[in-house]
Design goal:
By secondary structure, the protein is of the alpha/beta class. The chain is built from eleven helices and seven strands. The strands form two sheets. The chain has a five-stranded mixed sheet, with helices on both faces. A two-stranded antiparallel ribbon has the order 2-3.
């Protein structure tokens, strides 16, 4: 699984974020779904190929909306970074697998299954949004079950839709719409997950150092901090790293010793010798 998929799935798996996505995109911002009523569901289903060999297929996020102790609706999130012309057929597999489980009484009761396709790509989504549109040839078309594909282009949501969001997802969407100039006084709930989302959507391939970066900034998950404050601290750290890199490169060009360079970095950044050593290990 690619880093982008892992980060996005983790972010959307938080109950408050998942409920927010459903409420904002399906219920026009009305708080129909409460986070405490969402229960994580299995994301794996099986299908057999032509040799009757079983394969698994994974949905990104699956949540039951629990009503009076039983599932009322199942919501599936499918994240896409590229347009997929066959997405409708994949949906049929995901949704059909869940209805099959209900038919075989593997799950309690019967309930609808709703899939939301969250498209994060930069190019606009192109593709059929119904089975009949996808398969526009052949006789008996009016008898074809016309499954619909519900796609939201997350980078291009209009402001009135973004304003429906109340969780950290609002920060992510506004950042995508407004770019590096984005600032907000909204409090960040899931610091590490939010920063990772912003980084992968900005093209960063390696975000595993996010927790370490936040720890260096003395920011914990429990800390109360606004997005504006978090951005400013994160930016200052990036500037400091750039200064350290410049000093080290210049010192090496002038054949300065390791120790001399270390002391210059320490003095310029006003950091401990241990912190200066970490910068030296990156760029020396």
């Amino acid at each position: 699984m690619e880093q982008n998929d892992i980060v996005t799935k983790n972010f959307e798996s938080y109950a408050d974020v998942a409920a927010d996505i459903i409420n904002a995109l399906i219920h026009n911002g009305t708080q129909e779904i409460k986070s405490e009523n969402l229960l994580s569901a299995a994301t794996e289903s099986l299908y057999a190929d032509r040799e009757n060999i079983l394969h698994n297929q994974l949905e990104d996020v699956a949540k039951y909306h629990i009503i009076e102790g039983v599932p009322g609706t199942m919501y599936l999130f499918a994240n896409q970074t590229k347009a997929d012309k066959g997405m409708l057929l994949r949906k049929a597999g995901y949704v059909g697998g869940e209805y099959r489980r209900q038919y075989e009484k593997q799950n309690r009761g019967w309930y609808p299954v709703v899939e939301l396709v969250l498209y994060w790509g930069k190019s606009r989504w192109k593709g059929a949004d119904s089975i009949r549109q996808l398969m526009d040839r052949g006789s008996g078309r009016k008898y074809v079950d016309n499954m619909q594909l519900h796609v939201w282009e997350m980078r291009y949501l209009p402001q009135e839709v973004r304003e429906h969001f109340q969780s950290d997802m609002r920060i992510v969407l506004d950042y995508l719409a407004e770019g590096n100039g984005y600032r907000s006084d909204r409090k960040v709930v899931h610091k590490e997950a939010t920063i990772k989302m912003l980084r992968v959507l900005s093209g960063d391939r390696n975000v595993e150092d996010t927790r370490e970066i936040l720890e260096k900034m003395n920011i914990t998950e429990e800390a109360e901090i606004s997005m504006c404050e978090l951005f400013d601290q994160y930016t200052r750290r990036g500037i400091a790293q750039g200064v350290a890199q410049g000093i080290i490169i210049m010192c090496k060009e002038f054949n300065a010793s390791y120790e001399e360079t270390l002391q210059k970095v320490r003095a310029k950044l006003n950091v401990s010798e241990q912190e200066a050593e970490k910068e030296m290990q990156l760029y020396w």
